[in-house]
Design brief:
There is one protein chain. The protein has about 120 residues and is mainly alpha-helical. The chain has 2 domains: about 40 residues, no CATH class; about 70 residues, no CATH class. Helix content is about 55%, strand content about 5%. It has 4 helices and 3 strands. The protein has a 3-stranded antiparallel β-sheet, with no helix packed on it. It binds zinc ion. Zinc ion binds next to loops. The site of zinc ion has 8 residues, from loops.
Length: about 120
């Protein structure tokens, strides 16, 4: 078996089901990360990863940690950076969608009137 073929029979971290999992091909294509979905409980998960970080970037991280303080290790700092960048991209995507929605309303304001009518009918 080629080295980069993911093992799809990984135990689910939630329900511990050991049957084959469904890989997310879109996320794999975008990130090279394997995200698997449990077909029993629908939970999506990936395996823990260790990522090699070049020395120059580690040095910059040490300087940033010295300025910010409060981090107990490089690992904690890196995990926080990844979390913050993820949130940034999610917020950006939501904001772009909202802008697109507002743009569509601006071009076609009667859609908004129809939405209000639909809401009032639900009440
Ligand atoms: Zn499961």
């Amino acid at each position: 078996m080629p080295k980069n073929t993911p093992n799809l029979a990984v135990p689910c971290p939630v329900c511990e089901d050991e049957d084959l999992k469904l890989p997310n091909f879109e996320l794999k294509a975008a990130s090279t990360v394997t995200v698997l979905q449990c077909l029993t409980c629908d939970w999506e998960f990936s395996k823990d990863q260790s990522v090699k970080i070049p020395g120059n970037l580690v040095r910059h991280a040490a300087e940033a940690m010295n300025i910010h303080e409060g981090y107990s290790s490089l690992g904690e700092y890196v995990r926080d950076c990844v979390r913050r960048m993820n949130e940034h991209h999610m917020r950006q995507a939501a904001s772009d969608q909202f802008s697109e929605f507002m743009g569509a309303l601006g071009e076609n304001p009667e859609i908004f009137a129809r939405m209000i009518e639909a809401l009032e009918e639900d009440e």
